[in-house]
Amino acid sequence: MVRNNPIDSEQVRLAQLRVLVSESLDEARGQGATGAEAGMSVDRGLSVTVRLGEVETVEHHRSQGFGITVYFGQRKGSASSTDLSRSAVRETVQAACRIAQYAAEDPCAGLPDPNTLATQFPDLDVYHPWNLDAEKAIQIALQCETAARDFSAEISNSEGANIDTFQGVRVLGNTLGFLHGHATSRHSLSCSIIAQRGESMQRDDWWTVARAHSDLEPATEVGRKAAERAVRRLGASGLSTRQCPVVFAAEVAGGLLGHLVAAIRGGNLYRKSTFLLDSLGQQIFPPFVQIHEQPHLPRALGSALYDAEGVATRSRHLVKDGILQSYVLSTYSARKLGMTSTGNAGGVHNLTIDPGDMDLTALLKHMGSGLLITELLGQGVNIVTGDYSRGAAGFWVDGGQIQQPVEEITIAGNLRNMFAGLQAVGSDVDQRGNTRTGSILISEMTVAGQ
Fold first, then answer.
1. Do 67 and 20 touch, CB atoms closer than 8 A?
2. Which of 45, 74, 237, 238, CA to CA, is 20 to 30 A from 294?
3. How far apart are CA 413 and CA 429, in angstroms?
4. What gap in Å lies between CA 360 and CA 252, rounded to an integer?
């Protein structure tokens, strides 16, 4: 049997979607729209879950979608559909046009400025299809879970191992002449395991994700790490309330940068609902801190040539020498603020904080005595005031060495003070997402416990 080349198949899909997107824009103009932007996507993938050596689920999934936004002057209307037939696309465009007729005028509404749109399209190497069938996926997932269950006699149960593979194509176009599409892929493997010692029971997990399946961690390594993390948490206890330094392990430290992005996002800025309002050009981190976007890294999970509006992305500093250099703006929020889009409609791209020379072991020695956070719970972050309070678990460190696992504690502070009190960034950079950071040491936080 001859199998179709997946790369050739995606090129055919891209050509088909380009035609449909172009037709939808023509239809919008025919309906009287002064401007329009449309996006169309087709995705497919496989997901397999095993638990306790047995197959739990095997899911083949396919999805498709079409969305269009039209402008009649400064009145805006949007509509979407999961039917990509020509008749459905035409009806969706007509629905968006009807909605726009009843919308109020918004002086900031409209397509991006033409000179901000992407015009160069180098290959970012983000498409690596994986011809993985269900049988092979089951074998990999079982291998992962078996490695976790065999790690220690204290492994008592499993929440399973899961493997996911995804690939798809998307085309974006507007009536300013922008029309571009590309294919992407994303593959992942995860394992969640339970350990028990006497009355103490703990769970933990590990995962790996990449554009190319060859870049995933080995299945046995993922299972082993999940089990090791669960076992080391056994015997966890609480702490008395105290003030102390805190290290956010790399796998949770990205959340701190996420709070920074939320605080400088255009929507929060023009609504005046952020503690970093009017902070452009101000020192918000120590001088050694450099935070920037790297949207054009080959194979990276957050790489993109343009944002959700077709505005070109570019490498840029958000924070340089600790000073806030730029906001995170879409076309609309930029106009509300009297500024220019930063190419961030839809979010940031490979947000990176430059690491230091210390790995986690050295960072703990540098801290001396304090708390290592490996898990965060709850959503107690107020971007308006900067107040931060979240449930946490991790390890108490003394003399630069891990002494005991801890749980059922709350860490609290204020993001402005936490940013200013950032003492070091570890070299143990976690690259499994859109945010790249090593472990982060904060000089002092409140730990609320017993």
1. no
2. 45
3. 24
4. 13
